[in-house]
Write a structure and sequence with these properties.
The chain is an alpha/beta fold and 359 residues long. It folds into 2 domains: 16-255, Type I PLP-dependent aspartate aminotransferase-like (Major domain) (Aspartate Aminotransferase, domain 2, 3-Layer(aba) Sandwich); 257-358, Alpha-Beta Complex (Aspartate Aminotransferase, domain 1). The chain has helices at 16-24, 44-61, 75-87, 101-110, 225-230, 240-255, 258-278, 307-316, 341-358, and strands at residues 5-6, 67-72, 93-98, 115-121, 145-147, 150-151, 156-157, 168-171, 188-192, 203-208, 283-284, 296-301, 319-320, 331-334. It has a 7-stranded mixed sheet. It has a 3-stranded antiparallel sheet with strand order 11-12-14, with helices on one face. A hairpin with a 4-residue loop joins strand 6 and strand 7.
Length: 359
């Protein structure tokens, strides 16, 4: 059967050429006589894979030399605890901006370790917009400022890096590699892999060196960024196959023209889908246009009773995983890097045809 256009928020679709290369190398990685899954993580073969992956990621993001790159386990959710453990550095307060469910999860976890100051929240607007910057109540004594640039569930995205005086921490799980960013504006960036990087099981952390080495008491060694840096992300056996696939994805992004080209393509995809929604009385997107996500596009039908029919017919058309998150309902199209423009065009064509038949 032909491959479906998978609009899942994660694990998300991977580039087909990456999967084909992984398939070719599955039993024997480049004459090694074994699969990457069978390699010692300390053997020269896997070390070469790991080093090349980091080099390519550094090149793509233009990561400054005074930043360390980690390839960790535990998902972005583990970082909710690791960040205060590592970045409080003797302080007792941290600033958090609440723009959605993932922000709320990070806030709840941080409260186990410090006094959390929620500088502003979009909850009263059902997370359909971001509070104006001049309304944020930032604390000058905060150890760091945490925010989620893109909320996958509600489809809200902050497109510019906030101007903040303390180290900025960003959960870029759903936006990393989707466009160029200035890493030097951040103290720490973290991202689960399963959207724009690779399979689930790997988490990227990019952290400025001066923020390392002052963890809170009783921090587990596995959760100490400095210890992970010194062990080159290999305090224990890392998720080797996910790391390998991530390296293939980095090569693929470079072959597409790098992050400038990816950004242009992702913007075109999002604009095409939002235009189809906005030009229709049958579909609607609830998000403030200023903060609409390029990566996750939620939408509703004028008649909610048609949702099951929409999803069923879309699946038959090869357009899968379009149901909205259970907490908000409706539909959601996640259009990460690996979603081709043809996939978005196919979804738009289906939406127009469905409206014509059901409106």
């Amino acid at each position: 059967m032909p491959r479906a256009y998978n609009f899942s928020a994660g694990p998300a679709m991977l580039p087909e050429t990456v999967l084909e290369q992984a398939k070719t190398e599955l039993l024997d990685w480049r004459g090694a006589g074994m699969s990457v899954m069978e390699m010692s993580h300390r053997g020269k073969e896997f070390v070469s894979i790991a080093e090349q992956a980091e080099a390519d990621l550094r090149e793509l993001l233009m990561i400054p030399k005074d930043y360390k790159v980690l390839f960790l386990q535990g998902g972005a959710t583990s970082q909710f605890a690791m960040i205060p453990m590592n970045l409080l550095r003797g302080k007792m307060k941290a600033d958090y901006l609440n723009t959605g469910i993932w922000s709320e999860k990070a806030i709840a976890e941080a409260k186990h370790y410090c006094q959390v100051n929620v500088v502003a929240t979009g909850k009263d607007k059902k997370f359909t917009t971001v509070p104006e910057r001049n309304s944020w109540n930032c604390d000058i004594d905060a150890a760091y400022f945490h925010y989620t640039p893109n909320e996958t569930i509600n489809g809200v995205e902050i497109h510019a890096v906030p101007d903040i005086s303390v180290p900025i921490v960003a959960d870029m799980s759903s936006t990393i590699l989707s466009r160029p960013i200035d890493v030097s504006k951040f103290g720490l960036i973290y991202a689960g892999a399963q959207k724009n990087i690779g399979p689930a099981g790997l988490t990227i952390v990019i952290v400025r060196e001066d923020l390392l080495g002052n963890t809170i008491l009783s921090t587990p060694t596995m959760f100490d960024y400095k210890a992970q840096v010194e062990a080159e992300s290999m305090l224990n056996t890392p998720p080797t196959y996910a790391w390998y696939i991530a390296g293939l994805v980095f090569k693929w992004v470079k072959a597409q023209g790098g992050l400038i080209a990816m950004g242009e393509r992702n913007q075109r995809k999002a604009e095409k889908l939002y235009q189809a929604i906005d030009n229709s009385s049958f579909y609607a997107n609830p998000v403030d246009p200023t903060y609409r996500s390029w990566m996750n596009v939620p939408f509703t039908l004028a008649n909610p009773d048609l949702e099951k029919t929409f999803l069923s017919e879309a699946k038959d058309a090869g357009l899968v995983t379009l149901a909205g998150h259970r907490s908000v309902g409706g539909m959601r199209a996640s259009i990460y890097n690996a979603m081709p423009e043809q996939g978005v065009a196919a979804l738009v064509d289906f939406m127009k045809d469905f409206e014509k038949r059901k409106a």
